[in-house]
């Protein structure tokens, strides 16, 4: 190309870009199947609106969507393709079981960089196949078999915490719980714990990595192609351009090598093979291409990520509120004292029957939300009817768990930690009278930390087992191994969700929930 024609080529290209952008905007605003839904025109015209709140302002679109609902009503178009609903009574119509095919939206499914894992699988039938292979490892029975491993990790955590008593040093519980959940999932996925609980300071870098990856989900969604590009360039360059991606690659490599080991064990280990999630996958009958190390590495990455931050966050929120509400803590200790007096058995089954402990866990799950990001689902074959609105088949529709859990009509004083809201009247009176309430309330229609339907959390049973065993063990009588904890320079801000990084995150610069361990 001659030098003189270069500016002309640039101008033509620019003009083409401007014209095609205009056509795109007109199409989105006037000819989209959801053009008639309410919402800001700018959000309907371009993803830049969401980009501004989630990338530039670091995870604030969730709150902007709340504002939109105040202005436009319970159904809002929040970007060129997606509708968001704020109505707890509609939740079960979006997050449905196998009776209706449900797809994920390819645009948001790539936010974890694992589109071949169950969590990132768009297609309903492929997801069903992948999920069916994983489900047996996460059934109640399988998790009950895992209980000794979970309890061993919790006992180790308690021992490690006890080492801090009398030293005058505080412990960062946010980090400690992240080590606990990572060691549990490491043991179950690959047959050996990561060993993070042995780290002197509870390995803050691990939690930071998990949260940084969580934070980058918005960028992955908006600029998924950039991640694809990063995977193509040499690793030493990746480190210069984007150090977090280098860490992610390291984690991927580590998981891939763990999977390769499990594969070898599975082939040559005979009867000695430990029952791990990946051993279960190799025995699941999935077709060979589904068992490639590349795909299983993505599954492993999600399992490690999903099984770590979520449970740790819920535990942190629960302990913070218990230590801030002495009357609830005293009642819980009484319940656990009585349970301990019944005999040495200390199992998930026994603890799950304790009404106040279960109520504390439900309230903790409510206040920690599960995930803070809206979850998109698509009904590919049939339209959805919401009030007078017909939502065309194939439209991504989302709701936000945080909106459900903070709904004042359903949960009055939603801001307050009130486990009693999960107890019936008789149980509540018993609690106020200082006795242990008899049995827990069942209906929890609006508590959705794990989401619902075919795409709901895979690890529900594991999470409940960890929560019951960990809270039950931390606050059991001291002579049975329990602990006496006190908050250290920690206020509510440390557990208040200020930023939506898919997982709830507190304000920037947060130091985590810190405690002093008393003798
Ligand atoms: C308190 C703890 C937990 C909470 C609140 C939670 C919440 C959730 C939610 C809301 C989803 C749906 C995400 C989506 O639609 O994109 C999900 C999916 C998932 N969770 Fe959990 N989770 C927890 C613990 C765990 C644990 C311990 C594991 C262990 C492996 C786990 C593994 C997964 C996986 C693999 C998925 C993807 C499932 C699929 O798409 O088929 N989670 N979780």
Automatic annotation (TrEMBL):
<dbReference type="InterPro" id="IPR036396">
    <property type="entry name" value="Cyt_P450_sf"/>
</dbReference>
<dbReference type="InterPro" id="IPR050121">
    <property type="entry name" value="Cytochrome_P450_monoxygenase"/>
</dbReference>
<keyword id="KW-0479">Metal-binding</keyword>
<keyword id="KW-0472">Membrane</keyword>
<protein>
    <submittedName>
        <fullName>Putative benzoate 4-monooxygenase cytochrome P450</fullName>
    </submittedName>
</protein>
<keyword id="KW-0408">Iron</keyword>
<comment type="similarity">
    <text>Belongs to the cytochrome P450 family.</text>
</comment>
<keyword id="KW-0503">Monooxygenase</keyword>
<dbReference type="InterPro" id="IPR017972">
    <property type="entry name" value="Cyt_P450_CS"/>
</dbReference>
<dbReference type="GO" id="GO:0004497">
    <property type="term" value="F:monooxygenase activity"/>
</dbReference>
<keyword id="KW-0349">Heme</keyword>
<dbReference type="GO" id="GO:0005506">
    <property type="term" value="F:iron ion binding"/>
</dbReference>
<dbReference type="InterPro" id="IPR002401">
    <property type="entry name" value="Cyt_P450_E_grp-I"/>
</dbReference>
<keyword id="KW-1133">Transmembrane helix</keyword>
<dbReference type="Pfam" id="PF00067">
    <property type="entry name" value="p450"/>
</dbReference>
<keyword id="KW-0560">Oxidoreductase</keyword>
<dbReference type="GO" id="GO:0016705">
    <property type="term" value="F:oxidoreductase activity, acting on paired donors, with incorporation or reduction of molecular oxygen"/>
</dbReference>
<dbReference type="GO" id="GO:0016020">
    <property type="term" value="C:membrane"/>
</dbReference>
<feature type="binding site" description="axial binding residue">
    <location>
        <position position="457"/>
    </location>
    <ligand>
        <name>heme</name>
    </ligand>
</feature>
<dbReference type="GO" id="GO:0020037">
    <property type="term" value="F:heme binding"/>
</dbReference>
<keyword id="KW-0812">Transmembrane</keyword>
<dbReference type="InterPro" id="IPR001128">
    <property type="entry name" value="Cyt_P450"/>
</dbReference>
